[in-house]
């Protein structure tokens, strides 16, 4: 078992301590920075600090759950760059390959994810398959030892940077929609793949629509068995929600060594603007702070399980509220100047509505919690046992 001092010593070899009051960039907001994250991942790869729970031969350090949580906790003391660009590979694809990939696939892809040399994107949503993800129409047809892929994806984050895409495609149209899907990997620089960035409200172009026209890929890039793509996708989504909801552990108060707790960074950073003299603003900030504390304790309790499950939807909902509340409170701290776009908080504020959509909408998360955590009756699904070739056209 690693001691905290061992972990700090290892990280000090390639990371600087985080300066008090300096907030880290998150979710790539307003930034297309690839290099700082890549330099960090390359330096961390030598001892597996970035993905400590992964096996050492795949870029990690084979850390136990307890050691992994300690490493994650202590990482917050250091100036780790924003890894938004690399997050699909690190938080979703890598763990999914451990669960569903072959040994050869793990060896082919996971070390390059760990060291940042290859970026991955997630190609799930389509124009007619968003919240109803199982309605995917991207077609994959087998031709010997190869597959031909045709179709369109949308809201593909990191698509313009990615080397590889994790793509959910339909391999059988005559079975119910969940049963006819298979997961594949695809090279994003394939001439048959076209990536068109989409401009977001905040000015970022981190989402894309992707058109695949006759791309041929080997069967060795199929992840999981034929027809099990939905199960693989559920694993990906579970890890996505867990990573979205478990990031900072709620941003609650941090205790100085041997001293009293200090204000969380997001709140302390607002002190120079002087909004705490306003009792209404102060009450809103304290409500957000109290919610952060509750979220932190809940996330810590959930961290005892190494495998994400449906409870991750609760973590994702809490993280969405935290992001939105902090963004609104920070912008309001500027008073009338908050209506302008040339302040440090406007970009985060314009990003905040997307948090309720990306990674699964708030409505979908509540359905998951209701059905799979609370045991409430499921919503009627009249197309569950109908072949997709019929159900996609509507049953009424």
Topology diagram in text:
Layout: H1 4-12, H2 35-45, H3 65-75, H4 87-100, H5 103-114, E1 120-123, E2 139-143, E3 146-153, E4 164-170, E5 181-187, E6 193-198, E7 207-218, E8 222-223, H6 229-246, E9 254-255, E10 261-262, H7 265-268, H8 279-302, H9 312-332, H10 346-351, H11 362-373, H12 388-391
Parallel strand pairs: 1-4
Antiparallel strand pairs: 2-3, 3-7, 4-5, 5-8, 6-7, 9-10
Helix pairs in contact: 1-3, 4-5, 4-6, 6-9, 8-9, 9-11
Structural commentary:
The protein has 396 residues and is an alpha+beta fold. The protein folds into three domains: 4-119, Acyl-CoA dehydrogenase/oxidase, N-terminal domain (Butyryl-Coa Dehydrogenase, subunit A, domain 1), CATH 1.10.540; 121-227, Butyryl-CoA Dehydrogenase, subunit A, domain 2 (Beta Barrel), CATH 2.40.110; 247-373, Butyryl-CoA Dehydrogenase, subunit A, domain 3, CATH 1.20.140.10. The protein is built from twelve helices and ten strands. A four-stranded mixed sheet has the order 1-4-5-8. Strand 6 (193-198) and strand 7 (207-218) form a beta hairpin. The protein is globular, with a radius of gyration of 22 Å. The protein starts with a helix and ends in a 5-residue tail after the last helix.
């Amino acid at each position: 078992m690693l001691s905290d001092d061992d972990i700090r010593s290892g990280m000090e070899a390639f990371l600087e301590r985080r300066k008090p009051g300096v907030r880290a960039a998150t979710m790539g907001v307003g930034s297309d920075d690839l290099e700082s994250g890549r330099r960090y991942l390359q330096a961390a790869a030598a001892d597996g600090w970035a993905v400590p729970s992964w096996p050492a031969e795949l870029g990690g350090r084979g850390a136990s759950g307890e050691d992994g949580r300690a490493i994650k906790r202590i990482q917050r003391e250091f100036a780790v760059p924003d890894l938004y660009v690399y997050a699909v590979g690190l938080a979703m694809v890598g763990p999914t390959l451990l669960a569903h990939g072959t040994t050869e696939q793990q060896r082919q892809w996971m070390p390059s994810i760990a060291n940042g040399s290859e970026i991955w994107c997630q190609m799930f949503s389509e124009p007619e398959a968003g919240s109803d993800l199982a309605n995917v129409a991207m077609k994959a047809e087998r031709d010997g030892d190869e597959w031909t892929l045709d179709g369109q994806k949308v809201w593909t984050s990191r698509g313009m940077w990615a080397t590889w895409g994790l793509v959910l495609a339909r391999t059988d149209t005559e079975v119910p929609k969940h049963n006819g899907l298979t997961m594949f990997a695809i090279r994003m620089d394939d001439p048959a793949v076209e990536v068109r960035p989409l401009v977001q409200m905040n000015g970022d172009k981190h989402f894309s629509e992707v058109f695949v026209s006759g791309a041929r890929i080997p069967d060795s890039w199929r992840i999981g068995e034929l027809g099990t793509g939905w199960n693989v996708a559920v694993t990906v989504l579970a890890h996505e929600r867990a990573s979205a909801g478990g990031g900072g552990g709620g941003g609650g108060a941090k205790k100085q060594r041997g001293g009293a707790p200090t204000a969380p960074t997001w709140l302390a950073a607002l002190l120079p603007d002087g909004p705490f003299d306003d009792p209404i603003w102060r009450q809103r900030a304290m409500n957000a702070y109290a919610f952060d504390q509750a979220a932190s304790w809940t996330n810590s309790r959930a961290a005892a399980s190494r495998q994400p499950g449906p409870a991750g939807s609760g973590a994702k909902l809490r993280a969405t509220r935290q992001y939105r509340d902090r963004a609104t409170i920070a912008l309001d701290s500027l008073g009338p100047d908050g209506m302008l776009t040339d302040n440090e908080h406007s970009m985060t504020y314009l990003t905040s509505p997307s948090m309720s959509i990306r990674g699964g909408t708030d409505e979908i998360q509540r359905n998951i919690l209701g059905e799979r955590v609370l045991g409430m009756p499921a919503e009627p699904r009249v197309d569950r046992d109908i072949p997709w070739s019929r159900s996609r056209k509507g049953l009424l």
